[in-house]
Amino acid sequence: MESNWMNQTKHQHEVHDHSGSAHHAEAKEGHDIHSATSKPSACGGCCTAPIVQFGRSNGNDHDHEHADEEGDHADHDHGSLAPWWRVALALALGLMAELTHQFLGDAGAAKAAGMGLAAVAIVLSGFGIYQSGIKALLRGQLNILALMAVAVTGAFLIGQWAEAAMVMALFVAAEKLEDAAMDRARNAVRDLMVTMPQSVLRVLTDGRTEQVAVAAVQLGDQVRVAPGERVALDGEVISGQSAVNQAPITGESTPVDKKPGELLFAGSINTTGVLLMRITGAVGTTLLDRIVDMVERSQQAKALIQRTVDRFAAIYTPIVMVLALLVALGLPLLFGWTWMDAIYRALALLVIACPCALVIATPVAIVSALGNAAKQGVLFKGGQALEKAQKIRTIAFDKTGTLTEGKPQLEEWSVLPGTDDGEAKQVQALAQALATRSKHPVSKAIAQGLEEDAPSVAYAQADAYTQMDMEEKPGSGVQAHWQGKLWRLGGLHWLLQEGVQTLSTEAMAQVQAWRAKGFSVTALSSDVRIAALFAVTDTVRSEASAVVQMLQNEGMQTAMLSGDSPEAAQHMGERIGIAFAQGGLLPQDKLNAIAAYNQQTPTAMIGDGINDAPALAQASLGIAMGGAEGTDIATETADVVLMSGNLQGLPGVFRLARKTHAVVWQNIALALAGKAVFLALAVAGMATMWMAVVADLGISLLVVANGMRLRRDAASRPVQSIEGPTVSHRV
Length: 731
Fold this sequence. Notes:
It is an enzyme of class 7 (translocase). This protein is of the alpha+beta class. The chain folds into 5 domains: 108 residues, no CATH class; 98 residues, Calcium-transporting ATPase, cytoplasmic transduction domain A; 119 residues, no CATH class; 141 residues, Rossmann fold (3-Layer(aba) Sandwich); 134 residues, Calcium-transporting ATPase, cytoplasmic domain N. The strands form 5 sheets. It has a 7-stranded mixed beta sheet with strand order 12-24-23-22-13-20-21, sandwiched between helices. A 7-stranded mixed beta sheet has the order 15-16-17-18-19-14-25. A hairpin with a 3-residue loop joins strand 15 and strand 16. The longest helix is centred in the last third of the chain and has 34 residues.
């Protein structure tokens, strides 16, 4: 299945100095953004929900067009906002017009001077805004630009020239401040992007090297990465060892040691040694490219509450226009007010009613939260995923690859009765020697476990063991002659076929007990007698127990859904701390289990494999294990991806979602309360038009500041790993 992630936008590659240091690479880290656009909001476009588009170029220019997902936001163009010097000059001219009116009155020359100063101020600061507002009115679009055009025109016509100028200049200043604040919120997401090298040092088959463009590198090519260089493409280490900073990709705070056989991700920085890597991901298909695409798409997925606010703002502005008209006409006719006073209060009402703070309340919080999570290696697919996450009360875990690493580990081993202490040490050393020479993953796990258990014993006769004539039996085990005896390491079925004696009742009970826990059992035989048994199981993630405990402490219910045997699933659940563990489940069974959970309470499913995809789609919130081990279909299906490839960021998903939900409602309440107060003041004649603009600016900036607290909120901080269990053995 071809992943949609492969339909990538492309980054422009910038020149990278390969002789530089890690510090130099950090200093060059930047943002390569081919467009950063703001989608029109329902208030008319000055208050905008930020939509950031990232790109990476491999020489083919192309654009992504993203249609408005709601379809109810009219197109408009208010022109570019005036620079700060023009806004400042306009404010000064507006103040001069006010002073002229206050001290010189409305005499002929003074009146002309005041009108002239005000007109120049309006043109300097807001001609584009005014022009777009008139166009909106002509099209029948009652948005914020139309409100400002009506307010400024009305103020000018009733002789409030200075106020008309101040209103326009302050409005533009407010928009520029809001744009600057939203840019800061967007920067949290932009920090994911890095300045990528334009060329790499390719190693040819004859050992020569050549500098080539990144776009010319093919899968399977060998590339040399010097200390201080940024890795240009995904690949596997062939030779060399080094510490690599993967923070831009996985969010890991400390460099990771890399050796032959381990993966390198594009965008990470090689810090200490020279590495030779084999390319596994060409331009446009790397993990970084997939992250870029996901971030771009996440910016466009609106939360339900944001869509609700947008729809409310779309009807709110026409209602305000009608209310202002009623004030202008009703107060003189019903209460005997002068027409000038009534019209002025109606105009002040229009200015105060600008829904900027209301419309910006949700996106500023969501964008800040998305950026915060992304820095921690957690990618939400937009505000919808954040909103879903805050409702979750049950979390269902897949086992293999999620709660475990999917790598075999020696769990227990024992020397069978009848073996003295001296022979027991020899048994351990021989088992380690045989396992080391085998290519089977289970044998490798036994070798590593014995080495960690007693390295001095394992290496006691290392030189002698190298002289053994070993022979591997594919699919069965490995055997060798040592001191006149034939030693075999392999499965019990193979050993019995080779004429080895059956196990005693006690030993068979031990084997059955291990198998009930889901362990794989391997035996070491000496001629026809079995000398030792080894139990190998999947490696439990070091952070799994701590993560599950933390989720439970926060009121979450946990469950495990596994394709392993029910006994193995139950054992793993008890070991990690999950009381309800189901085993023997096929993909359809997992889907049915999630559907049943969803009927009781909103449920999240977290998994990593193809077999988890149906359940991820069925869940209220799908969470995929990303990184090198995650599958494309799982990450495509999920709402949230843990790019670090571990569970450390999982509790932060729900904490940050709940915090974001609270901040959004704080912002909405603040915006509505502020509007209500100043609307009452306007009707009571206690608020001028320029005061209304200042009040709107203040409320908007308070909303932005409150939302931007989420950029550095500690809620998304990952859980620390704990040491896993040690190997147990018995003699």
